[in-house]
Amino acid sequence: MVNNQPGVNLKSEALKNGLIWGIINIVIFLISWYVMPSIMGSYTYGILTMLIGIALAIFFCLDMRKKAGGYWTFSQALGPIFVTFLLSMAIMYIFNIAFGKYIDPSYPTTMKEMVLSKSESTMKSLGLSDEDTAKALESTEKSLDKQFSPSFGQAIVGFGISAVMYFIGALIFALIFKKSDPNPFANVINEQPSEQ
Questions:
Q1: Calpha distance 121→168 (Å, rounded)
Q2: Per-residue confidence at 112, pLDDT binned at 50, 70, 90?
Q3: Among 21, 91, 24, which residue's Cα sits nearest to residue 57?
Q4: Which of residues 146 and 36 earns the better pLDDT score?
Q5: d(CA 68, CA 122)
Q6: Which terminus of the chain faces fewer neighbouring Cβ atoms within 10 Å, N or C?
Q7: Rounded Cα distance, 30 and 33, in Å
């Protein structure tokens, strides 16, 4: 049993952390889009946002474990971690679609052009023939259309696939950040009714 600090509800903490993470992602996106949009189609941007995401995930996992009393089992860690991950992803996923449809309709077209241009130069540098490059770019363009201007069905499927990926990430982080209480009698001495 996790020894929560008095008044700490891990479900609320997970929702709060997911909301904060989602807002941070939106701020990074908006700064990048309006200050240096050309960086958004680069590998550097992808790596940088991934590193920021991992750093935030580590911070939120450690914060929640501390608020859980410093110890939590794998199963106790998995729920709050997954909720945090899923909410942050959902906020950014919905924002991306809404941004391209209602706020700045040039976003999907510009991003597609940047990604296709970078993909084409990468394929040429790898020595692909013009025919193979054209086929690969056609496939990439279809994929980008689904990503930046999805139909309702495509958006649901895309969200479901992302949710599965984030669940796998939550499993990994729960394995990494679980921590057993070294006191073998902690469950007996401190057992309190839980709301689960």
A1: 33
A2: confident
A3: 21
A4: 36
A5: 47
A6: C
A7: 5
How far does Cα 48 stand from its chain's mean position? 13
Query: Of the spans 2-16, 21-35, 127-141, which averages the highest pLDDT?
Result: 21-35
Long-range Cβ contact pairs of 174-180 (< 8 A, separation 24 or more): 174/74, 174/77, 174/78, 174/81, 174/82, 175/74, 176/61, 177/61, 177/62, 177/65, 177/72, 177/77, 177/81, 178/72, 178/73, 178/74, 178/76, 178/77, 179/65, 179/70, 179/71, 179/72, 180/71, 180/73
**Other C-beta atoms lying within 10 Å of the C-beta of residue 129:** 10
Task: Report d(CA 22, CA 84) in Å as an integer.
Answer: 9
Its pTM stands at 0.82
Question: Nearest to residue 17, comparing CAs of 79, 72, 80, 69?
Answer: 80
